[in-house]
Specification:
- Pfam families: Myosin_head, Myosin_N.
- Belongs to the TRAFAC class myosin-kinesin ATPase superfamily. Myosin family.
- It is built from 31 helices and 24 strands.
Length: 1103
């Protein structure tokens, strides 16, 4: 034992030295762009600035004092609860997380919830010994752990008979899936131990688990705190709890093992490798584990959300498709021949264009684990083959080659791959090929054949692959629920939510909007629970409290996305649904409509759309077709390309009819909701049992509407539970163990509301108890304070608090509850445990005294009995040869007393008969109760479906009303436009008539000009003949010739003017009139000149 004392002394010496160094200087945290925060000490303060000496390197920096953060003393390093820090700031929080993460402590409490940092490596923190260590222990008795959160939820469920939920949230790659599995592992283990031995869900001190044997093989992170082993504690040989010495497989029942083995199945079909996570859940799930009143598991149920089905067809080069594709090709050697799979990953188009392997993952071993899990859950070989049939068919669909002719018609040059698909899915190859290449569409009342282009046929095959996988995944979950579900009206449940985290990619599409919208709702639920409800309860209880607004109201962003127009504003999803039913709508018109609704000018102050606070969260994209939304985590830019098709989720009706009539029952059941009537002779397959997620015939639902309904159902369930929060953190983007990217962690802490949760927990009173419960639990600490008889609960608590001598600053007494600061109840529990320990020790001493005395009395009575037996034996020896005794022994069987034995035997037989009847009646009663519960469950399911239909009808009514209003406005515009067209047509007719009149006049004038030209020619001839005689007037004739040439030029000018008048006649009537008058005057002037010239010539000729 000297070594531990020496180690403790050395640790104490190091702590003292660190504290002494800390006391010598004023240590602060200095912001740093690269490292987040760096440690330093203040060398000099000069007004608002200070000189800081950095601890690393001794660099001197001059920075403003207001950006510095105070540093906590060294004794607070690696503290279990961040709320215990003296100085609560971002630097201190991330420094504590970094120190704990470096020492292997990945879990840290943060007020009322748990922060889990992904270690990117396997740690020995989840063994049976660790489960035993956290069983029936309070939170402060052990180091932070995910098991402690599960234990608190299990205890609250048992004590308060209230449903619980554990919300595991965080960014992609933060470890949410693994945390979910550990919670389920713990709940299954403790529920299995209910029937293994006595175990009560109490957080009272258990002295039987602190022996040295239970602490030998545990890692340091899992060890209990030093103050949990108290002086004078009784140690026994029972160092392991009931059943914990066994292996998990040995102690778990079938139902518990089925619940655990459902995870490998869901991970194989629903998880994939991404750039940030090797086992990323590409769907959301809410696992409800139901518990019977005695604490044992009564059943389980799984709801799923937002399967990323597009990953089946396309993904980035650095990522993989779903695990099951690679597992089947790597390990399914026996089944691959039946599925016609003869190649590797590189031989299939849907797989060979992206990453093919994951470091540290053996797909063959994962295949064996998947097969074992399917066997445990209860999948028959035929059911397993049906699941892999769909996977193989999708791979074959990806290899179908489609080319185009010169006319751009799609053709299939090699039908072998299509024949493989048809063989696996049980459909005729000719009908399948026709449905892909030349489907029949309804045009009016007639069916016509439509030739598809090559790209359209490829898109059709991709849509078919995605639909097949999604429908098969839905029936897979239904089949798992069928195996796990045990309906009971008396059971309560613990729900574990694991859903995709907030995502920001280079190109964000419709899927990212739905995922981020879901996380926005969950963050709002967290804020509402942590901040709003907390402060509202203070107000209801009459506690003096200044309302603190932490600025985390996410409702404007949520309304921006989901508002359906009831409050006057139309959200993004409702606008998208509205555009999906418009005949000529496109992604561009949808984007333009969004911009006009949320980013247009606010001209009407009374319009709720223009005054909605969500307008501040919306911004049009600058360079691409899309928009930006300000989420709680960051501003995200979304590209709207292909949103209308994604929201409609279309599939060729020809293909659905072909697969609905498949000869394979499983395949036909996938498309059973696409036929108006059931197929004759077909039987209901086993996979079709359970909840149907497909839409009903004739009830068109878009992807956005279905997701809103599922999310509303999820939030309703969460609101009806007592939540527990686990915030998962990504330490670095390189998936390297032991590395912490401080700016990345800080950004997540801000987004997750961790710091705000700590602040309100420290400002407020997170622990509270009703008066009755507080008096019932802690009255033992104040004996004689409360007199006999009735006393008001508030007054009783006030007297007890006075006797406990608590500071008024650490508690508040409300109207129905008493509230405490963080840590006060833990101190009261310590005092209560010590008192109960002393009382139980005295009771044990009295009990031992009583048992010892009873043992002595037994010994004394045994001695008296021996002497009595000896005396009777001697008397029997003396009477054995006495004749009268012999006669008595022969007559004794004939006495009436001896017949009582036969009567007793007969009564026993009758009793046994009645017991058998009672047992049969009990079995019949249980069968009827089970039938009743199943009928009630079916009734609740029908009611939920009816409520969803009602909500959908309300949305459709609002949409129809808006459409009618829009239609009326368009009709009014059409009438106005028609009136304008009529007026313009009348103007055009008048202009054309005027142009025609002008042309006629122009023709008449041209004829006159022609006649004048002919006359001029004759005059020229006469002038040549008379040239000899007219020498004296030659100069005058020359002048006349020049005048004639000028007239010809004027004639050409008039012709050009006439053409211009013809062109302008339609446009302006006034210009035509002026041109006509000008032409008339010119003609008259020319005619006058011509007449003058003719008269002159006549005069000259006369002379």
């Amino acid at each position: 034992m000297p070594a531990p004392r020496l180690s403790q002394s050395a640790e104490a010496a190091r702590a003292a030295a660190a504290q002494a160094e800390f006391n010598e200087k004023k240590w602060v945290w200095v912001p740093d762009d690269k490292e987040g925060y760096l440690a330093g000490w203040v060398y000099n303060e000069d007004g608002e600035y200070g000189d800081i000496i950095m601890a690393a390197g001794g660099e001197a920096r001059r920075v403003p004092l207001f950006i510095l953060s105070k540093m906590n003393p060294p004794k607070f390093d690696r503290v279990d609860d961040i709320a215990d820090l003296t100085f609560l700031n971002e630097a201190s929080v991330v420094h504590n997380l970094r120190l704990r993460f470096g020492s292997g402590a990945i879990y840290t409490y943060s007020g009322l919830f748990l922060v889990a940092v992904n270690p990117y490596q396997n740690l020995p923190l989840y063994s049976d010994a660790i489960i035993h260590q956290y069983r029936s222990k309070r939170r402060d008795e052990n180091a932070p752990h995910i098991f402690a959160v599960a234990e608190r939820a299990w205890v609250n469920m048992g004590e308060e008979r209230e449903n619980q939920s554990i919300l595991i949230t965080g960014e992609s790659g933060a470890g949410k899936t693994e945390s979910t599995k550990k919670v389920i592992q713990y709940l299954a283990a403790i529920a299995a131990d209910v029937h293994q031995g006595p175990s009560t869900p109490s957080h009272s001190r258990s002295p039987t688990i602190t022996g040295s044997q239970s602490l030998t093989n545990m890692p340091s992170i899992g060890l209990p705190r030093t103050n949990s082993t108290r002086r004078g504690q009784v140690l026994t040989n029972s160092t392991t709890g009931s059943g914990f010495a066994l292996t998990a497989k040995g102690r778990l029942g079938l139902l518990e093992r089925q619940i655990l083995q459902a995870n490998p199945i869901l991970e194989a079909f629903g998880n994939a490798q991404t750039q940030r996570n090797n086992n990323s859940s590409r769907f959301g799930k809410f696992v409800r584990i139901s518990f019977a009143p005695d604490g044992s598991i009564a059943g389980a149920n799984i709801d799923w959300y937002l399967l990323e089905k597009s990953r089946v067809v396309v993904r980035s080069e650095a990522e993989r498709s779903f695990h099951v594709f690679y597992q089947l090709l790597a390990g399914g050697s026996g089944i691959k021949e039946k599925l016609l799979l003869g190649g590797g990953v590189e031989d299939y188009e849907f797989l060979n264009k992206s990453r093919r392997e994951v470091d540290g993952v053996d797909d063959r071993e994962e295949w064996n684990a998947l097969k074992a899990a399917l066997d445990v859950v209860g999948f028959s070989p035929s059911e397993q083959f049906d699941l892999f049939r769909i996977v193989a068919a999708i791979l074959h669909i990806g290899n179908i080659v489609i080319t185009s002719t010169r006319a751009d018609d799609a053709v299939m040059p090699d039908p072998s791959q299509a024949e493989r698909v048809c063989h696996l899915l049980g459909v005729p190859p000719a009908e399948f090929t026709r449905a892909v290449l030349r489907p029949r569409v309804l045009a009016g009342r007639e069916w016509v054949t439509q030739a598809r282009t090559g790209q359209q046929a490829l898109d059709e095959l991709a849509a078919l692959s995605k639909t097949l996988y999604e429908k098969s995944f839905g029936l897979l979950v239904d089949r798992i629920n069928q195996a796990l579900d045990r309906p009971s009206s008396k059971s309560t449940f613990i729900g574990v939510l694991d859903i995709a985290g907030f995502e920001i990619f280079d190109v964000n599409t419709y899927e990212q909007l739905l995922i981020n919208y879901t996380n926005e709702k969950l963050q709002q639920f967290f804020n509402h629970h942590m901040f709003v409800l907390e402060q509202e309860e203070y107000s209801r209880e009459g506690i003096k409290w200044d309302y603190v607004n932490f600025g985390l109201d996410l409702q404007p962003t949520i309304d921006l996305i989901e508002s359906s127009g009831n409050a006057g504003a139309i959200g993004i999803l409702s606008c998208l649904d509205e555009e999906c039913i418009m005949p000529k709508a496109t992604d561009a018109t949808f984007t333009h409509k969004l911009h006009s609704l949320w980013a247009g000018p606010a001209s009407d102050p009374d319009d709720p759309q223009q005054n909605h606070p969500g307008r501040d969260k919306y911004e049009p994209a600058r360079f691409e077709q899309g928009f930006l939304v300000q989420h709680y985590a960051a501003k995200v830019e979304y590209r709207t390309d292909g949103w209308l098709e994604k929201n409609k989720d279309p599939l060729n009706d020809n293909l659905t009819r072909v697969f609905a009539s498949s000869t394979e029952r499983y395949v036909s059941s996938l498309f059973a909701d696409h036929v108006a009537a059931p197929i004759p002779g077909a039987q209901t397959p086993m996979f079709s049992v359970g909840k149907k997620r497909g839409m009903k015939k004739g009830a068109f639902r878009t992807v956005g509407q279905r997701h809103k309904e599922q999310l509303a159902s999820l939030m309703g369930q969460l609101m009806a539970t007592q939540p527990h929060f686990v915030r998962c953190i990504v330490p670095n983007t390189n998936k390297k163990p032991g590395r912490v990217d401080v700016p990345l962690v800080l950004d997540q802490l801000r987004c997750n509301g961790v710091l705000e949760g700590i602040r309100i927990a420290r400002l407020g009173y997170p622990n509270r108890l009703p008066f009755v419960e507080f008096r019932h639990r802690y009255e033992v600490l104040t004996p004689g304070i409360i007199p006999k008889g009735y006393m008001d609960g508030r007054e009783a608590c006030r007297r007890m608090i006075g006797a406990l001598e608590l500071d008024e600053a650490i508690f508040k007494i409300g109207m129905s509850k008493i509230f405490f600061k963080a840590g006060v109840l833990a101190d009261l529990e310590e005092r209560r445990d010590m008192l109960l320990y002393d009382l139980f020790s005295k009771i044990q001493a009295v009990a031992r005294m009583w048992t010892a005395r009873r043992q002595i009395r037994k010994i004394l009575n045994r001695a008296v009995a021996i002497r009595t037996i000896q005396r009777n034996a001697r008397v029997y020896g003396e009477l054995r040869d006495w004749p009268w005794w012999q006669l008595y022994t022969k007559v004794r069987p004939l006495l009436a007393a001896t017949r009582s034995d036969e009567e007793l035997r007969r009564k026993e037989a009758e009793l046994l008969l009645h017991k058998e009847r009672a047992e049969r009646d009990k079995q019949e009663k249980e069968a009827l109760e089970n039938l009743k519960m199943s009928l009630e469950a079916e009734k609740n399911k029908v009611e939920d479906e009816l409520e969803a239909e009602r909500a959908l009808n309300l949305d459709k009514d609002v949409l129809l009303e808006r459409s009618k209003k829009h239609e009326a406005e368009l009709e009014e515009e059409i009438v106005e436009l028609q009136a304008d067209i009529d007026e313009l047509q009348s103007h055009l007719d008048r202009a054309m008539a005027m142009a025609k009149d002008s042309e006629q006049r122009h023709a008449e004038q041209r004829d006159m000009f022609d006649q004048a030209a002919e006359h001029l020619v004759r005059l020229e001839n006469e002038q040549k003949q008379m040239k000899a005689r007219e020498d004296e007037v030659l100069m005058e004739l020359t002048n006349q010739n020049e005048e004639i040439e000028r007239l010809q030029n004027d004639l050409q000018t008039l012709q050009k003017v006439s053409e211009e008048l013809k062109q302008l006649a339609i446009q302006r009537e006034e210009d035509l009139s002026r041109a006509r008058e000008r032409t008339d005057s010119t003609v008259k002037e020319l005619e006058g000149k011509l007449e003058v010239e003719l008269r002159n010539k006549c005069v000259l000729s006369g002379n």
